[in-house]
Description:
six-stranded mixed β-barrel; ABC3_permease_C; membrane; 804 residues; 4 domains; alpha+beta; eleven-stranded mixed sheet; ABC transporter permease protein
Amino acid sequence: xxxxxxxxxxxxxxxxxxxxxxxxxxxxxxxxxxxxxxxxxxxxxxxxxxxxxxxxxxxxxxxxxxxxxxxxxxxxxxxxxxxxxxxxxxxxxxxxxxxxxxxxxxxxxxxxxxxxxxxxxxxxxxxxxxxxxxxxxxxxxxxxxxxxxxxxxxxxxxxxxxxxxxxxxxxxxxxxxxxxxxxxxxxxxxxxxxxxxxxxxxxxxxxxxxxxxxxxxxxxxxxxxxxxxxxxxxxxxxxxxxxxxxxxxxxxxxxxxxxxxxxxxxxxxxxxxxxxxxxxxxxxxxxxxxxxxxxxxxxxxxxxxxxxxxxxxxxxxxxxxxxxxxxxxxxxxxxxxxxxxxxxxxxxxxxxxxxxxxxxxxxxxxxxxxxxxxxxxxxxxxxxxxxxxxxxxxxxxxxxxxxxxxxxxxxxxxxxxxxxxxxxxxxxxxxxxxxxxxxxxxxxxxxxxxxxxxxxxxxxxxxxxxxxxxxxxxxxxxxxxxxxxxxxxxxxxxxxxxxxxxxxxxxxxxxxxxxxxxxxxxxxxxxxxxxxxxxxxxxxxxxxxxxxxxxxxxxxxxxxxxxxxxxxxxxxxxxxxxxxxxxxxxxxxxxxxxxxxxxxxxxxxxxxxxxxxxxxxxxxxxxxxxxxxxxxxxxxxxxxxxxxxxxxxxxxxxxxxxxxxxxxxxxxxxxxxxxxxxxxxxxxxxxxxxxxxxxxxxxxxxxxxxxxxxxxxxxxxxxxxxxxxxxxxxxxxxxxxxxxxxxxxxxxxxxxxxxxxxxxxxxxxxxxxxxxxxxxxxxxxxxxxxxxxxxxxxxxxxxxxxxx
Length: 804
């Protein structure tokens, strides 16, 4: 076996280029597996661990009236309520310089920052709010460049006042500014009086339930509402939060699912390259196999030689890919968690991802190489010595002669040989095409998924036939709101809506809704054209509807086994309750986990239940052909205009349609970036596969190159011949990748849509991406062909005659 070991090392060392290509191709797939699976494990677990470490509340209850601490803490006497902590939060406007523009912000106050019960805030730097100083949220500080010592100007009743920033604080549950979230600041109870909050009074409650279950939490929320209603305190919203799952978990889970699919495909392409390389080695060394067997070597000896070579390829690839995969997974996880305001500073890795990398580097190549190795090792001595590999009979079939004829008509001599050479080793061509086609199909699929997400969001936003929605802190007269807005220059129409927090009941039992902020009943004016959701069952509200009928979301219908024709009870707390017949089910697409689950009903029916006629707490507005900047300016002007009449707009519930669009796109920008990064890896793997195939082709045709040189072939001609062969392979793979990507993108888009939005994405095949991939694959093929072509151009007549 000593001589055979020498052959293994000889082949590895003296064919260094081939060894390097094989190692890199395996390493690319192993790297993708390690990076993606490691990222998935650490990202999801890191989000949940950070969530669980801050004593998360189960219910976040926003009240309509202030209550004192005793009233809040008395709610803990309700069975199943294990703890209550009151706090204050409000939406205000601020600016960082006297001549700067006003921006929206949330201000938060705790009764004692150093003795918190739930949703722990953590001091990152400086001091807690007090003595005239305020805190700034950590990601707000980083995103907006607000440092300790800066002064922030806040808009107050009748005057403006600057507060110095004396502390930097981490809040565990703030929407990232990258995704459109507000700036966050922190005040003590005394300073909150400047914003109209009486000292010792609270407007929000954090509640924990024991024992926790989603159903029991909703039941206890209803009990708390009832208890507060007896004291004439209304509940505006209830935000439900699971104690063991981060609010962004489901969205990230959908992204990682697609990434895992792409990582497996990347590994598959690497495996195909291993098969291709192994087949080429066996083909090239068929005569050597004959000599080994003639000297007494067995089939097992031959198989062992080549499998050991493949094992060494895998081990070398593991040395390269393992640390890179672990590092990439850690640093990518760290960056992504920072978007969610989560620290991840201590290096760690996923043991499961490490195991997958080892298996991918060792078992996958060995299993892939097993068939060509056993096939080659089983050849007899006579066949081995009489054959120069497989495929040397090119030109004998009708197909081969057709290829040659086509090449003679399309290409000038001597480049006609390039097309024929592509089909000389049909097995290798098939495998190379499989690698390039998979790389192209994945690239096109990724960009199609990105386009489909964008198209789906566009369609949803286009169903809103208004340009902005303004939310108010208090209820106001509907006719007064509409009159004030419609007289303002630039406003073409205004429609006031009434909405109220609701609980959906069926036969007395509370139903599960899909909104992070709970259900919300909307009274839609009869004949309204401002909004029409996507109806998937039943119908939308009609102008003649004035009775107690409702349109509910698909999630609510599916969660509770509700269908069109069923009757549900909608409980509005202290405003009463009433039965509504379901006439339609709509499909909403919202990237915002901090959203309500709307139930739409005719405005007259809502007035009949609530006895709140001609009242509204929000208004939708159409403007006269303004762009995004113009709408933002108009919204600020309308804020000032309405404020002069005592109507304060809540920045938290007010947005223009372009701002909604930007928020939605920013939310999924990370999805696009991660998918595109993996698409680039796929392209690189495909280029490595083509380079390896052409390099082997150069070695096999060494004598042919010598013949070409002997009859006057120059180095540029020979190089062009091989480059043309590579480019032709790239073009062929492009023709195959386009229809394949179309076929696979649709079901993958459905999976991604169901995971993120709980709906199939509106499919949009990315036509520009087809042209982008054409340019990319030709460029990849050209660059991958340069090194093999250069090697071919350097072969002399003497070297070619001495070969073999």
